[in-house]
Fold:
Amino acid sequence: MSDPMALLNGVRARLAAGERLTAELRADLLRAVYGVDPGGTEDTLGRLTGVNRVHLYDSLIAWASPVPGERVLDLGTGAGAAARAAARVVGPQGLVIGVDAAPEAIALARERTPRELGVVYREGRIERLAGVPDRSVDWVVASLVLDDLPELGPVMREVARVLRRGGRFVASVGALDRLRPADAPVVGALVSVVARRAPGSLTGRASRPSIPQDPADAAAFTGAGLHNPDTRDVALSLPMPDVETAWAVLGRTQMAMMLDDAGRAEMREVLGRLVPAAIHLPVRFILTRSPG
Structure:
């Protein structure tokens, strides 16, 4: 398997040269980003709060209406924050399984998870949940994972397969199309750097409405046999009093990680002209159920 940093540098060079972010290249980008920085999302967005003290992981888990003793599956577990949040509410009689394709993420999740929480981590692809029996879990969670998929259908079919009748699926996705007008200049300035430095990346998922608004995404839920999803739009507050604070978060996002050194330097320079500021990063929570 390729060294993640070497793979990332190769992807950066291809994007800087104008190559489009095809499904194959995006898979390489994700493999590299999560290999180089498996704790990035948890260490940055996972520490932010929003209106009514909304939290990326705890608030999403609460929306699943968890019950002690339930069995939970966490897709794309990363460093394990959502899995740990689920384990704290289902308790010692419950079970949480976290699945991620990046061995670096699985290793970090195991390191960060106290033994008493009893979370089981497995390396694997979420499109093929090998070893998870049909109708075997009460609910499934996917935090900021669905945005990475070129199509939702295969994963939604696996979710429907493993959920018990009446089981729940909760997910969080990015929702930049719900950006506040006041925040648009800041985010627009950062996206403009990507447009100049890696124009081929602004295609595919990045050019579509946020999940599940696109017709193909909506059809993936119902096509798998799940109910039409309910949604709840929230926002995480990111104070940016200085460039160091802002870059500590934004510099670890996929948007920044895909840029080569020159592009990252330009993005940081742009941030320096925008601070001090504070922006709200829009996130959508999604909830659906298996019939029964």
In short: The chain has a mean pLDDT of 95. The first strand starts at residue 71 and ends at 75.
